């Protein structure tokens, strides 16, 4: 039987994706290899079929990705027949545009913004499609579907355009760009239900696997060369999965035996934890994400 | 699971964010992280009752000022229903955000502070809920704990509400609940302090499916773009991608393309790899036609026997959402789905006083948060239906030609 709720969400997203393609000259889809950008690209495929997706994919590569995600990305994009542009945070560091953070919590997450803004300028993108969802975080809950940014990429909630009846106004001035969020109204549960329904493939890190981890402040983080490991960190081998997949340095692992989409779905609902709870970068302060968004983060 | 879309509105300090927090808290719908935040913030403030507003007020400025500035969308589910709440700001300055929040809702909750009774904003929110043809309004008479759970006070406010409804929208479906979000009375759990109230709690009311207002169902399809493809095994595939605003359509139907007035027959309705015999309102599909007629973005497809208004003039109600005033003669860009063309305000008929629900003639300027009735001169036929008959094809926005800001939402009369 058709899941009417997912069908409605799918309709809404396809409508938004087509509006982006029609209203902008040079859109790009921000692709991280995570579940949300995978769902978004699947929806894009549906929106324009049998044509191929009419915009390229951009991956801002921090260099701290899970190797499984990168392998998945390359395989998946080949299957989609989409063009992939990769820009590296390492290049921004080498060009002295940003400085690597230091200390035990060092992460490249907020450094991505500079690389992203440079890529927008380099290619002249006027719209960036992002897989952000309003249920993820409190400042995300305030985001419009078309979010206008000035040429510094800044998010100004006071300038947000009202979107009554989801009539989308993508008119912008030269130098401005829009971040467009076609899956704004999906919840994490919707995403997993849709992955199940559409039988979508995901990077292996989303499912239970054995891994070398470090335990820090009561949280498990994947062991990697990118992490500044200190004496108080305990090294353990455990069966875990990741609920969100960001950088290896700032994504927490869950102890889990869930190896299928159904099992993940059940476990997430039962846990009552929010998925952003696993993002160490958001725990820096209550408004960590809002601050990053104002600075041009997507 | 049934999805219920709710919008909340109230004046500043009516306790709207606290009410939503309470609804989530008592429905056991908070995440572990929200529970931790709640405990931490409540301890910091040294409050006796949990500070439930921290769950929704998401912006730094909102937390500093203790008010809601922008619409937040909150998602939660109970065992039987999924809910999306558009939490809209109460301050008069942010009325536009209230309209935005309410535009996606079936039900609106209007908060009233039991100490203050109905305020200008309550009248305005009710007027807008009616203008938007929402299915139901629930008046939440909040902070009953601060008036000693007094039944007489509740009745006074209920009479005010009844008068307002009779005066401005007698056909509106509404309910009134006395509650305290801070203490939890009648939000999810029935109040022990108001035994005189025998009605339903807010949560029970929200779980009742409101009667849908049935609107006319003529077929309206907004062409978003043309898909022309020779990929995936197709040779010369040509179809019109868009969303069905209203009505149904079947393969074989004769359709007319507006504004060209050319007709053709539908040969295929496609949704990704699937071909359909019939498509329904809300469906995003691609439609192929028998004849090669000139159709591009902005064209509306309808059945030939049910063509909407073709004139270049339109009477509409506008809710003004910009700081910059407008006058008769001001020009804007009208947008609705893929339709997009210049329009001029030919004349301002009157301004509506939302408190008295009366019309004031002789208005020469339109200011922020004004609700006005105007005549628009269109640079091309708009093909709109009256909003009261077709919600999806009766609404549009106006965009400023210089700043590109969305300055108004309009409803065809």
Briefly summarize what is shown:
The complex is a heterodimer of chains A (298) and B (413). Chain A is an alpha/beta fold and 298 residues long.
What does this protein look like?
The complex is a heterodimer of chains A (298) and B (413). By secondary structure, chain A is α/β, with parallel strands linked by helices. Chain A has 2 domains: 4-191 and 287-294, 3-Layer(aba) Sandwich (Rossmann fold); 204-280, no CATH class. Helices cover 32% and strands 17% of the residues of chain A. In chain A, strands 3-2-1-4-6-5 form a 6-stranded mixed β-sheet, sandwiched between helices. In chain A, strands 7-8-10-9 form a 4-stranded antiparallel β-barrel. In chain A, helix 6 runs antiparallel to helix 7 (261-271). The radius of gyration of chain A is 19 Å and the shape is globular. The mean pLDDT of chain A is 89. With 413 residues, chain B is of the alpha+beta class. Chain B folds into 3 domains: 2-207, P-loop containing nucleotide triphosphate hydrolases (Rossmann fold), CATH 3.40.50; 220-302, Translation factors (Elongation Factor Tu (Ef-tu), domain 3), CATH 2.40.30.10; 313-412, Beta Barrel (Elongation Factor Tu (Ef-tu), domain 3), CATH 2.40.30.10. Helices cover 18% and strands 36% of the residues of chain B. Chain B is built from 7 helices and 24 strands. In chain B, helix 5 links the parallel strand 4 and strand 5 (136-142). The interface between A and B is large, with 54 and 67 residues.
